[in-house]
Amino acid sequence: MMWQEAATEVSATLIQMLGAGGFGAIIGWYVYYINRYRKGDVQFSDLTTVIGIIGGGAIISLFPAQSDLFGAYGIGLFVGFFGYFLSLIILVNSTANFKSDWFLDGRRKKVSGDEEIPGAVRQTVTAMSGKTEYDDTE
Amino acid sequence: MTILGSLGFGFVWGWLVGLIIGRRPRPFPWLSYLTTITPLLITTGSFAYSIYYISTGNITLAIIFCATTLGGALLHNAFLQAIRLKNGIVTEQI
């Protein structure tokens, strides 16, 4: 029985594993990016596209059954998604303009006299909430 | 490797689930509860079945995925709660 199960496994090369992992990392990074730049409050309908991206049939069908490629994809997804989040944490902690409560409601210090936020900069919602930013910078 | 993949996939999905649920207004309206939770459960089940299918019948991986999804959602809300307590912020949507 064990021999039969082993015989059905599909072997994956290192380059395939790295490819699946890297693919997942990019998807994960963009999932966080899309979520961060979404418009308005969090709704399930906002994430239907994301759901299709991270776990849709097109993705799943890329990986043969019983191979490790799906595992590599899932690991890459985790690394990309939480890598973006970790980057935000590092950036927030490395400047005096933000504190950790930026993650809650986006509060920050006012722009000082010799600084500006160009009008062309795209508005974001806070990293983890649905509130639109830049309301308090005037 | 596949177990790690299920864990990673589950945590990402769970974090998004926590984002959706954790940002609902308080008190949580029952209608909103149903219209929010139901599709999340269906989608989580769909993902779990995909993992079950791709692993050609490994139910353990599907269970690991579901458990990790729950863990990711709880971790997301724990993170928010920790910042809220640290900074003394009280908002309606935490």
Instruction: Spell out the helices and strands of chain A N to C.
Output: HHHHHH
Whole-number count of domains of chain B: 1
Largest sheet of chain A: none
Most extensive interface, residues per chain? Answer: A-B, 43 and 41 residues
> For the residues shown, what is the average pLDDT of chain B?
80
Question: What would you call the shape of chain B?
Answer: flat
Question: Approximately how much beta-strand content do the residues of chain A carry?
Answer: under 5%
Distance between the termini of chain A: 70 Å
Number of strands of chain A: 0
Using the CA coordinates, give the radius of gyration of chain A. Answer: 20 Å
Class by alpha and beta content of chain A: mainly alpha
Uncertain segments of chain A: 1-7, 130-138
What is the structural class of chain B? mainly alpha
Instruction: Give the overall pLDDT of chain A as a whole number.
Output: 74
